[in-house]
Amino acid sequence: MGVSSSGKSSIGKALADRLGWRFADGDDFHPPANVEKQRAGQPLTDEDRWPWLQSIADEIDRVTAEGGKLVVACSALKRVYRELLVHGRHDIRIVYLDGSKELIAMRMAARKNHFMPSSLLDSQFKTLEVPGTDERVIAVSIDDDIVGIVDAIAKQLPT
Ligand SMILES: Nc1ncnc2c1ncn2[C@@H]1O[C@H](COP(=O)(O)OP(=O)(O)OP(=O)(O)O)[C@@H](O)[C@H]1O
Ligand SMILES: O=C(O)[C@H](O)[C@@H](O)[C@H](O)[C@H](O)CO
């Protein structure tokens, strides 16, 4: 989890490769209307996000019911969103990608071919509720290269 351009897709994929797990990108679960809304520079509301988050929670249940393990990239900016995703399961860990607005804005500006405009970064930070320690969160600084960040996460995952 983390704001747009914090590195969820890049780090999530690299972590899944490292662990030999599947990877699911929350961006692929958006209904087209959510993508278009953000492309047009409008932030999503709770109402826009609930069905999207539910479809990601369903995917977690579907894959794990088959015995699979997965890394999921999802902004999950508010605590209530994370509660929906975790839905009382004890085998899910939240990983928070922690970075300054300056660093993330730079990465966002350099990124090509993505629907999310840089103008939405302020609203992403306003919406963000940094996870509390009671959420058993693994928080990592994104001020490192991807290999270093994946190492930091993998070290903190329960074996
Ligand atoms: N640790 C890193 N060092 C340097 N560049 C990075 C790092 N992590 C991600 N990037 C780059 O930053 C940009 C944003 O990363 P990415 O697309 O993975 O973020 P995201 O959180 O999935 O974004 P979104 O939620 O908008 O889809 C990409 O161009 C990516 O290559
Ligand atoms: O506002 C949000 O909840 C998130 O930003 C997602 O909706 C975006 O799709 C994604 O993070 C950008 O690619």
From TrEMBL:
Write down the InterPro entries for this protein, in alphabetical order: P-loop_NTPase, Shikimate/glucono_kinase, Therm_gnt_kin
Top-tier EC class: transferase
Reaction(s) this enzyme catalyzes, per UniProt: D-gluconate + ATP = 6-phospho-D-gluconate + ADP + H(+)
Which pathway does it take part in? Carbohydrate acid metabolism
**Can you tell which superkingdom this protein's organism belongs to?**
Bacteria
Q: Which UniProt keywords apply?
A: ATP-binding, Kinase, Nucleotide-binding, Transferase
Instruction: Cite the Gene3D superfamilies for this sequence.
Output: P-loop containing nucleotide triphosphate hydrolases
EC number(s) per UniProt? Answer: 2.7.1.12
Family from the record: Belongs to the gluconokinase GntK/GntV family.
**Protein name per its UniProtKB record:** Gluconokinase
> From which organism does this entry originate?
Tardiphaga alba
Which lineage do the record's taxonomy fields give for this organism?
Bacteria, Pseudomonadati, Pseudomonadota, Alphaproteobacteria, Hyphomicrobiales
